[in-house]
Amino acid sequence: MKSDAHHNGLLLLTFSAVIGMATLATGAEPESSRLIAGIGSAQSLLEDMEYLVADLAGRQESFENNIFPNIDIFLIGVDQENPIRFDMLFSAENGQEIQAIIPVSDLDEFLDDNLDPIDIVPERDRKDRNLYELTGNVYEGWLRSLRDPDYAVIFPRQEWIPKDMEHPADLHKDLVEKGYGLFAHVVHDAAKMDARSTAFDSMRTSTIESIQKRTDETQNAHELRQAWLNEQLAIFQQWFVECSEFTVGTDLDRKTDVLGATLEFSAIPNTPLAENIARISDNASYFAAIQQPIDAILTARVHLAHDDRTAKGLIELYKKSEVVAQEQIDEDKNASDAEKVARKESSKLLNDVLIRSTDMTLLDAMVDVVPSGDHHVLILGVRCIGQDSIQAIVDKLPESIEGWTVENGVADVGGTKISKIGLGKNVPQALIDLYGESVASAYVAASDKAFWLAFGENAVEELSKRIEAAQSAQNLASDGTVLSVKAKATPLVESLNGLLNDEASIFSPAFNRQQERVENRISQREEDEVGTGRQAASAFLTFEWISKVVEAMKGEDDTLTIQLKNTSENTLTGDAQTHRAILKAMGTMIANFADENLQ
Predict the structure, then answer these.
(1) Helices (H), 427-474
(2) How far apart, in Å, are the Cα atoms of 518 and each of 13, 213, 232, 330, 514?
(3) C-alpha–C-alpha distance, residues 505 and 375, integer Å
(4) Tens digit of pLDDT for each residue in 203-245?
(5) Which residue, 87, 103, 445, 504, is the most exposed by fewest CB within 10 angstroms?
(6) 3-state DSSP call for residue 122?
């Protein structure tokens, strides 16, 4: 039997993980917005976990000895056949709060043997026999017992779980009938947008204020970290507040070894978000004429519109990023004074491109990694404004990085000149393995509407074909694509693993520095109020999962596909599929983590 602290930590980790997996959900409280998120049942979760870890990854002992016991310990008194929910409620007064909705098989057992041992002490209300006050060091709040089916609803405030409350099973019934393993759903009243926005503002403010300055960062870096999170929350806020209806669900098919997901999102008519969605279908992507190759190990397209509020937020972010970039350049002990001067000038030029590009209020980009010769070639294109600054950055590269060279005008595609960048001698072996020896040179171009980059075998030819296709396209109709991704995960993960472990890679030192910072911060707060739960969560942050799953993926179907389109007015529809190799990698990662941290 695990310790009480371990039990407590695992409960909190599991609750957080389930909430984190679900993006949005449904319903409406009088004073708030309710986001419903759930899993089909504890039994289905256990079966899916056993399938991933024992059946696919071949780690039966890991499942039986370390994973199952650490899940089973918090299922005491829980009905394992019914859905478990963790709803997120927003209100202007209280910000964000979580309501746990747990199916129970034996209420007394759940109270006495599940909650009480982790110092959540229940006491029945004298006037309401189905209401319990919860006290202790872990949680303070209220629990209401409901019947037909039996559920325990847990919330910090008594008034939100009244005696005549609607049974939570009514809200997830349709989603469960669709067979979803994980599900989420939201339906919003257009008349309550202001109330939702006020509630979200409260949560956003408290979240930003809670971010503490780290000992290893400057004040400017701290403010940048706050600003990045604030902008992310602001974007999420718009999608949440202006959402009319949202549904997402997952289904793990053990016969075909495919994890599928479906999504449908609709915006409230005549909102900025609805207008942004309409722009996707009204105007084709600049890269629409470039067909996605069927033999790619990675092909992706993104075409997403935003509004002026987001543009203004991005500008503030870019300004703060520029200040921090200047600081980091000064701190680089490996750069000469001349290199630092050139890098600072290039940083200002890049910031100019980013800020000017916000005028488009659009993210429009493409990337293809395709077979070429005996290896591969990568081609990237991004819509932008500020081509003069881009060329100036290219021209400064030899001054910015010792050993790099630039040769302008190696090719000309309809007036767009391609420049060749020599990357010096220390090219990571992982890039050579995937892209060939020619990866020592990269090719860039700034056309009238986009920035282009290519490297690998036949890079100039492949880049030229795509530039020509984009520049010559006329009167293209949009198919409404917002996001389209198809990837073969094994070679990509293998290459990433090589980059992070190759001393010649520019990514490896940065990755190692980041890991060291995380480990230092964890060691400083190793023992806190959450105890073992925080330690397990911290272990996951530094867990070296990439190298551990590469071998597991080889020889299996490693396809990942994602599609998201504007299919009708104000509506986005999406689906995703993950195949056997990736599921096997997930099982391997879970098993390794459990063996190292949950014994």
Answers:
(1) 429-435, 459-472
(2) 19, 14, 22, 23, 6
(3) 19
(4) 888 889 999 998 889 999 999 999 999 999 999 999 999 999 9
(5) 504
(6) strand
